[in-house]
Amino acid sequence: MLFSDVASYLKLELVGEDLELDSMNELSLSSSSQLAFATHKKYSSELSSSKAKAFLITNVLIEYLPKNSSYIICEDVSISMAQATKLFSKKPIEAGVASAKIGDNSYIDGMAKVENGAVIGSNVTILAGAYIGTNVHVGDDTIIYPNVTIYRDCVIGKECIIHSGSVIGADGFGFSHTNTGEHVKIYQNGNVIIEDCVEIGANCAIDRAVFNSTIIRKGTKMDNFIHIAHNCDIGEHSVFVAQTGVGGSTKLGRNCVVSGQSAFSDHLSIAPFSTFTARSGVTKNITESGGVYSGFPLMSHREWKRLQVRIAKLNN
Amino acid sequence: MLFSDVASYLKLELVGEDLELDSMNELSLSSSSQLAFATHKKYSSELSSSKAKAFLITNVLIEYLPKNSSYIICEDVSISMAQATKLFSKKPIEAGVASAKIGDNSYIDGMAKVENGAVIGSNVTILAGAYIGTNVHVGDDTIIYPNVTIYRDCVIGKECIIHSGSVIGADGFGFSHTNTGEHVKIYQNGNVIIEDCVEIGANCAIDRAVFNSTIIRKGTKMDNFIHIAHNCDIGEHSVFVAQTGVGGSTKLGRNCVVSGQSAFSDHLSIAPFSTFTARSGVTKNITESGGVYSGFPLMSHREWKRLQVRIAKLNN
Amino acid sequence: MLFSDVASYLKLELVGEDLELDSMNELSLSSSSQLAFATHKKYSSELSSSKAKAFLITNVLIEYLPKNSSYIICEDVSISMAQATKLFSKKPIEAGVASAKIGDNSYIDGMAKVENGAVIGSNVTILAGAYIGTNVHVGDDTIIYPNVTIYRDCVIGKECIIHSGSVIGADGFGFSHTNTGEHVKIYQNGNVIIEDCVEIGANCAIDRAVFNSTIIRKGTKMDNFIHIAHNCDIGEHSVFVAQTGVGGSTKLGRNCVVSGQSAFSDHLSIAPFSTFTARSGVTKNITESGGVYSGFPLMSHREWKRLQVRIAKLNN
Description:
The first copy, chain A, is of the alpha/beta class. Helix content of chain A is 12%, strand content 28%.
């Protein structure tokens, strides 16, 4: 898509030369063929060092643009960015893609739906009512139970098990907000990558990234009702007990253990080998590996146990 | 249905003239063709002013009946009411209804099920495994992702997005309880109305009303795993973050923001522009708009932050 | 399967005579045709009195074996046991089973999938997108709503209602853990038994047992998003409000009432007629029936209310 087409769609003016753009991305990750955006002065140094050549910015950020940039000045970059994501979004399914490829010895029930462009490995089992979207890849020896949904462009590794009712790759929850209280959808143009040997319980939901990928690394095991928001990166061999949620862009190191009904805020970084007891509410980064935590607000498990004793004494 | 048929079914006596009844409703909302019921003396004034002409009541309420009422005296109105809802309930699907109507340019996958009587607008996308029940209406430009279920008689607006695994219109959770500890189902004879521009995440559940409608007003956005119980009324442009639940008949004003794992009791009224931080537990009405709340029991967010500091000091 | 085949698969030595084994089970429940295992010295007396004849044990437990036992000494019984469960596991669907039997007056939508070996009673309704696995039994007058999944070998009683998106019989969440932090799947070779007159809301998940059965007893009613882990035994006429979870092997007595977002740890025993208010977190057995509880850590509801008042005063 031409940058000038974006400008037309937004009804805003393009400054600089026109460019061919293939997608959008965050400022720090954008390549020269991607549309970047900067919403706030705190991103001025990221802006200066960006590899992108096309930007949506506010007036006050012009001076920080890399040389020879093309840009659109937006009254509200957040709204314009959201509107632009629609231009780069894909349809739920795609016409004109080659038929799905199915590997040897795979069983795909006649009542499962595999969209065109999908690539299914060998010895895969896909049961009735499962949905495999456009261009989805499923690795060898994986089992997809009935009524699982895998949205387009997601990647499932080898020897995975995905239980019924789980949804892989639905839109992450992202909106920009107008002055009048309406919410403008930020189209979620990324995908989900599930590595090898991952097991996902019943009725989980792992959302696709806004840009790039939500990643579940190899060997991780999830119980039922796990919510993983867009752009999370879940470390290898982690364990999630039922009804736990992880906010957007949060990154867990390997071998974390998360007990039931716990939750993580967005944009956190959690050290490997961290353990969280039931109903932990994690709102801050954890930098030291191997700790055991509890409570909301979160504290060390030892502290939490002592605190419960002291709280109980208030009743004396 | 004749009121005398209800009496026969309940094996109780009809007092007054027989009447043709088309449905049941709450006392305060009943019309002259609806069967009403009053379980307790506290409803005596509602009973006196009711527009209904047919009642299930207890002995002690006879004196409060409007003139010329027909009625059945029940030993346990709650149980008799529950039994009567079965008489007025509809089958999960309906035979003998006209074929579904599909608008122009709509894509309905051959592996989606659209029951008779459904009315689908134009430019609608319904993917494989989705279920559209008898008489459901779906507005223009709406996208229904795979394995969504919409029960009969529900109404979905224009430009809505409903993600996979979500269930619209399952029965609300309502039972009357016998002396011996059994639960008698109150059939849920209402529906769900979702207005325009609503987005519903993956694996949500929005229950149908017992009578009348559960309503999600325009522009509201829901993340994954949102539970909305029967007869809720969710205001325009509200936002629900993952794993949140709202109890039956609770009404939220417009532009409420509800963070993850929060919950609301039933029968609450929440002022518009209220914000609830993660894991809020709301058990009382909120009458003033624009507040920010936290905790369980709920308090202002400012109080909650101060309280957490004081609680932490107990450990010193 | 021969015990010697198990030994070969584990690459370990069989001591004693070879035996034909039909399944695995916990030590205390094993019959003479089942493979048992003992992981720790604390099980020595259970081991001595076991009816099993084939064991996976550690070196230190040899002296407690019943006379004439056959056994395999494992370096890590937990890992060997997990590996052995794979040998006894069944495929997700089974070829070579007789066609499903359908009772009179049952409606099975052409877009529902009923696997071979299933036995469906009379007057059953199974709507589009529902999945009924190999050898599943469904009792008379039961309604299975669209996009419900029932895994193989599960048993559903009469007059049950299962709402859309619910998953009955997905694998329980069980793994053994290696020294290097990997998780070895314990195959879940049991099933789920749902007795008569049970109603299960939308998007619930009731996991199959590792051995034997997860049981939901008659008349129990569940709201949406209820998680019941493997090997639970839920007493008659219990009530679960939305977003509640029960950990593995926990047993509730009859007529328990569990309010929203509550949770139970695993391996608990809860007395009948216990009531838990919203967000209860139950981590200990309850032996006295009829109590009302709140909070996490759990306490009596009366104590909890008093405690909240005292906590609030910390802010003065």
